[in-house]
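Justification of computing resources. Each target in the renewal requires a structure prediction run like the one illustrated here; the chain below, 591 residues long, is used simply to show the kind of job we budget for.
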Amino acid sequence: MKLIKHISLILIVLTTSLASAQVSFEVKVSKKKLGVNERLRVDFEMNKDGDNFNPPDFQNFTVIGGPNQAVSTSWVNGKRSYKKTYSYFLSPKKRGSFSIKQATIEIDGEIYKTSPLTVVVTAAVNNPNAQNSPETIADDNIHLVAEVSNTNPYLNEAITVVYKLYVSPDTGVSNWREKDNPRYNDFWSQNIDIKNLKVQNGTYKGEDYRFVILRKTVLYPQKTGKLDIEPLSLDVTIEVPTNRRDIFGGRLMTQGHKTISAGSRTIHVKELPQAGKPADFTGAVGDFEFNVITSKSELNASESLQARVEVKGNGNLKLFELPKLTLPSSLEVYEPEHTENISTNLNGMQGGISDAYTIVPQYKGKYPIPSITFSYFDLKTKTYKRISSGEIVINVLDGPTNTTASDNNIASAENGKQPVVVNNNQFAYIKTNTSLTAIKPNHFFKSTGFWTGLLLPLLAIPLAIVIRKKKQDRDADVVGNKIRKADKLAKRYLSEAKKALGKKEAFYVSLEKALHNYLKAKLNLETSDLSKDKIENLLKSKHVEKSVVLEFVEILQNCELARYTPITNVEMQQDYEKSAQTITAIDKQFK
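Resulting structure tokens:
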């Protein structure tokens, strides 16, 4: 019996020692998925005391509490249970999927590590868990509110979101930073700058508060149906009163951090009505004016004018296309230059947009610019409106005559077509009778042509070598090639002006057009962009000497003034030669 008792005692001791030998070191989190405005508790637990605890680097979190240490020991049915815990309270810095990396500790001379753990941080939640928010004292004293001007707008109707931070009189805020910016999916958005934050007095849910406006955003919904505005989240440094008082009886304040969110907002976007929608409607919503304006109504052939299609008013100016001009084929038209002059405030976009067409008539006559229409949805009347520009006639007073034009000299896109006259003799040029003769045999072998064709390739080899050598020398001559290229461009653009030498009006029109076309080729500019200041600045930026730039601008000024002042043939020749020299100089210096 004594032997059995000894064996039982030995087994109990061995079992106890084996159980105690199983060391456990693990990490636990309060939740694996939380909002960016919530707190995360991380516990590192071990069943045996150790030394040199080394926590992980909480790279994507802010440590707002910890490490807190707790030890507990208990005996259950004669078995000892031990637990030691290191606790941290974390605040996420942003949204995403983040890893809680390994922690290490030394127990009985061995290093133990926890396993990595993944935590997902989502957008702010409306009701954060209070047990994860140590600064619950400020829950009822600080509020971030998103005020939406209209939760049921039409498609492409402007709405505003104003973010206000409300603080009760007994609570202070010393600093804040944005943790999570809202993403306005399916909206066109623009923030309105707030230069100075102004503290104002107001009420929140019937109680007195102070507030500041942190952000103003204008939104234009681009889809119909239910759209969500994601919340704005702030990390706020707060100052709340404590139960302690100073020697004068004043209540002492304590400082902490709190993440607050404006909460998500849902917008229900209405579709624009289908009844009465014009066929040319391109999505314009607001209150607009529409015009087509020409810079001239009378001019000569080869002179230019500008036709501007413009829309002004209040609405989604950046979100629709302007109607296109349809012009007669006898007019040379350049691609339009699009211009926007728009400002954005709490009422949405205001200002105007325009397309400027540069038009150059080629022939004498009257050219109609047909009427075009612009349609938009008027938010005030909830109806579609259609504005017509009216027809504009351009009178070309002087220039060559278009022989394909109609008798009344009114040019149109169709007047170049001529009726086809059927003639019975239209196929008379085709011979129907043949006259065949026999061909005498001709022996090519050993003839003059035979020997010429045989020896000519052999003789061409030295000639090809000489030509290739000269080409290599020419290609290596960088300066010479630049001069030859400049001369070629000068001759190309000035050829029309040279033909008109002696005819003052035609010469200076051609010369001005040649200079403009040269700049368009070199600087990739439209004709309407060619102001003298812009030409001067662009050429200087391309390292063209100042004297050459001033000479080029002076020639352009001469072209404008010469039409209205007496000019001799000698002066015209001088302007022509000066133009050629200036183009050559620009091309050599252009970088």
